C-alpha cells in the first residue's frame, strides 16, 4: 500500500519508500503530474510538463528497482543511484534534447534543443524523473518572475504576490508540493532570493562547482546552477548528483565532490550539537536600508538561536559590500550584452521578416526581447562602448576584486557568515515594475556572493506577516558541505518551532478551477 501524501514526502523519504517497495516510481510520477495538471494554472510555475517522458523514465526506474531486488536486498540499497525514480523540475534555460528551451523569452520561441546540458546528463544517469520545465524571468533577468514571456508566476503563500526570481517557477513548484526537487540558476541571487520568499531551501554553489555546459547564458562569469529542496538534506542530495568536473566547461572545477548528504545527520540532537564551537560572522552591511522590520527581527532571532545552541557569532566588516549593487549592474549587463548578441533571427529561434537583413535583425530583436532584457542590453552595451569601458566596466572589475578580498579576510576569522537572504518578504505583483532600482535592490543581500564566486545557502527562518523569511549562510569557496551542515543544524534547533508546521497559505486555492491565473489576477486588479 502506498504511503499517504506522496507529494508531501521529502526526496530522501521518497527514495527510502522506493527502495522498500512501498511505492513505485510510476506512482510518484503520476501523483506529481496530477498535481501539476490540477494546480498549474493558478500558479503558472510551469513552462511545460512532460508526462510522456516522465512516465517512461519512471517505468525504467521501476525496472531497475525490480532487477536489483531480484539480485538481493543489498543491491537495492547499495548499487542504485540516490535519485532513482525521484521527480524533479528543471528551469527553462537548461537544454534538454528534443525539448523546447525558451529561457522565458519569445526570441527563442520554437527552438528545440539538439543536445542535453551536462546536468541533464547527470540527472538522467542517476535515474531522476524530469517531469517538466519551470517558468522564469526572461534570460534570468529579474527578481520576481514577472518578466517571463509566458506570464508571471504566483507565490503559493499568497497568490497575489511574487515568488521571487529569476528561478521563481522552480521555487514555487517546490513550495507547492508539485515537485520535491528543482534546478535553478543564480546570477545575483536567483536561487536564494526565491527560496527565501517561498519558504524553501536553495543553494548557490561555488562558481565552477556545477558545469554550465548546455545552460542558456546570462552573465557567464556569474551564472551558477544549483538545487532547490524543501529541506537541507534534499538540496544536498541534488547537489551531489549534478556537481563535478565537465571537460566541456573550462570553468568547472576539477575537485572531488563530497558526499554532501552522507555528512548530514538524520538525528536532530546530533545535528544541533555540530554548532558547538562554530564561529560565524555577522556582516553589518547586510542589514540594508529599507529592510523590513519583521525580516530583521526573524533573522536576529535565528542568530540568537544559533548562539544559544553553542555557536559563536561575531560582527564582521565587509566594507565594499555597499558598492556591490552598482558593480553587479555594470558587469552583468555587459556580459549579457555580449551573450545575447547571438540572437539575430538567423541561426535559431524567432525570425521576423522585415524585407532586409538589417530590418530582419532589428524586427526580430525588437519583438523577441522584453523590456527588461532590452534595458540590460542597452546598459551593458553602453558600459562596453569606446570611451566608457575604462570608466565603467574596468573599474567595476577592480571593485569586484575588492569585494572578494573582503570575504577572504572575513574567512580568516570565521568559519562562515550568516546574514539575511532578502531584505523583504514576497511583494505584490506590480509593486516594483515601474521602479527598476527598487527591483534591483531585492538582491542587495545576495549578489556580493556571486561577485566573489562563493557558495550561499538560504534556509527558512520564520514568518513575517504570514510570509516566509530566509536566513543565508555564506561560505568560503568549495565549502558547500559546511553550509549544508550549518543549515541542517539550524533546522534541528528550530524543529519544534510553530512556524515549521505552517504550510503555504493559498495551497487550497490552487486546486480550485475558478482561481484565476496570475495574469488574470493582475488584469482584474488593474
Can you walk through the features of this model?
- The protein has one domain: Alpha-Beta Complex (Amidase signature (AS) enzymes).
- The protein is globular.
- Helices cover 41% and strands 12% of the residues.
- The mean pLDDT is 95.
- It has 526 residues and is α/β, with parallel strands linked by helices.
- The protein has helices spanning 11-20, 25-43, 51-71, 73-78, 118-126, 168-175, 192-198, 232-242, 268-273, 293-308, 324-339, 357-368, 371-384, 389-410, 436-440, 447-452, 480-493, 507-510, 518-525; strands at residues 46-49, 87-91, 129-134, 181-185, 201-204, 225-229, 279-283, 312-316, 416-420, 456-464, 467-474.
- The protein has an 11-stranded mixed sheet with strand order 1-3-2-4-6-5-10-11-9-7-8, sandwiched between helices.
- Helix 8 (232-242) runs antiparallel to helix 17, helix 11 packs across helix 13 and helix 11 (324-339) crosses helix 14 (389-410).
- The N and C termini lie far apart (49 Å).
- It contains 19 helices and 11 strands.
Amino acid at each position: 500500500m502506498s504511503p499517504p501524501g506522496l507529494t508531501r514526502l521529502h526526496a530522501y523519504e521518497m527514495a527510502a519508500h522506493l527502495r522498500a517497495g512501498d511505492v513505485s516510481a510510476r506512482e510518484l510520477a503520476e501523483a506529481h503530474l496530477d498535481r501539476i495538471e490540477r494546480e498549474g494554472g493558478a500558479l503558472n510555475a510551469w513552462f511545460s510538463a512532460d508526462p510522456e517522458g516522465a512516465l517512461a523514465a519512471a517505468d525504467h526506474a521501476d525496472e531497475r528497482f525490480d532487477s536489483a531486488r531480484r539480485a538481493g536486498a543489498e543491491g537495492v540499497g547499495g548499487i542504485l543511484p540516490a535519485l532513482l525514480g525521484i521527480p524533479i523540475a528543471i528551469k527553462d534555460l537548461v537544454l534538454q534534447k528534443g525539448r523546447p528551451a525558451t529561457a522565458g523569452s519569445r526570441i527563442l520561441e520554437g527552438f528545440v534543443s539538439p543536445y542535453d546540458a551536462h546536468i541533464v546528463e547527470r540527472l538522467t544517469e542517476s535515474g531522476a524523473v524530469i517531469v517538466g520545465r519551470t517558468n522564469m524571468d526572461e534570460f534570468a533577468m529579474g527578481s520576481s518572475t514577472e518578466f517571463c514571456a509566458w506570464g508571471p508566476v504566483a507565490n503559493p503563500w499568497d497568490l497575489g504576490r511574487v515568488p521571487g526570481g529569476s528561478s521563481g517557477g522552480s521555487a514555487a513548484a517546490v513550495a507547492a508540493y508539485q515537485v520535491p526537487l528543482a534546478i535553478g540558476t543564480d546570477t545575483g541571487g536567483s536561487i536564494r532570493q526565491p527560496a527565501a520568499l517561498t519558504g524553501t531551501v536553495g543553494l548557490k554553489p561555488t562558481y565552477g562547482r556545477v558545469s554550465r555546459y548546455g545552460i542558456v547564458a546570462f552573465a557567464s562569469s556569474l551564472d551558477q546552477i544549483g538545487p532547490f529542496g524543501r529541506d537541507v538534506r534534499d538540496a544536498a542530495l541534488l547537489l551531489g548528483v549534478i556537481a563535478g568536473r565537465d571537460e566541456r566547461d573550462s570553468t568547472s572545477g576539477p575537485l572531488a565532490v563530497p558526499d554532501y548528504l552522507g555528512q548530514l545527520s538524520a538525528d536532530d540532537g546530533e545535528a544541533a550539537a555540530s554548532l558547538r564551537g562554530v564561529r560565524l560572522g555577522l556582516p553589518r552591511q547586510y542589514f540594508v536600508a529599507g529592510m523590513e522590520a519583521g525580516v530583521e527581527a526573524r533573522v536576529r532571532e535565528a542568530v540568537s538561536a544559533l548562539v544559544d545552541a553553542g555557536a559563536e557569532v561575531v560582527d564582521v566588516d565587509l566594507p565594499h559590500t555597499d558598492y556591490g549593487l552598482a558593480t553587479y549592474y555594470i558587469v552583468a549587463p555587459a556580459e549579457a550584452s555580449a551573450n545575447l548578441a547571438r540572437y539575430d533571427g538567423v541561426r535559431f529561434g524567432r525570425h521576423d521578416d522585415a524585407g532586409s537583413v538589417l530590418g530582419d535583425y532589428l524586427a526580430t530583436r525588437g519583438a523577441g526581447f522584453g523590456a527588461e532584457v532590452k534595458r540590460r542590453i542597452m546598459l551593458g552595451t553602453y558600459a562596453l562602448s569606446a570611451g566608457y569601458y575604462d570608466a565603467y566596466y574596468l573599474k567595476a572589475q577592480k571593485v569586484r576584486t575588492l569585494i572578494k578580498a573582503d570575504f577572504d579576510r572575513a574567512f580568516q576569522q570565521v568559519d562562515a557568515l550568516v546574514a539575511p537572504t532578502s531584505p523583504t518578504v514576497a511583494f505584490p505583483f506590480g509593486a516594483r515594475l515601474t521602479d527598476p532600482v527598487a527591483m534591483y535592490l531585492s538582491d542587495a543581500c545576495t549578489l556580493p556572493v556571486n561577485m566573489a564566486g562563493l557558495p550561499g545557502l538560504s534556509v527558512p527562518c520564520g514568518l513575517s506577516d504570514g510570509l516566509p523569511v530566509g536566513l543565508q549562510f555564506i561560505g568560503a569557496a568549495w565549502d558547500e558541505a559546511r553550509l549544508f551542515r550549518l543549515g541542517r543544524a539550524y533546522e534541528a534547533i528550530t524543529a519544534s518551532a510553530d512556524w515549521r508546521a505552517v504550510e503555504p497559505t493559498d495551497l487550497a486555492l490552487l486546486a480550485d478551477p475558478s482561481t484565476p491565473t496570475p495574469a488574470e489576477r493582475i488584469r482584474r486588479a488593474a
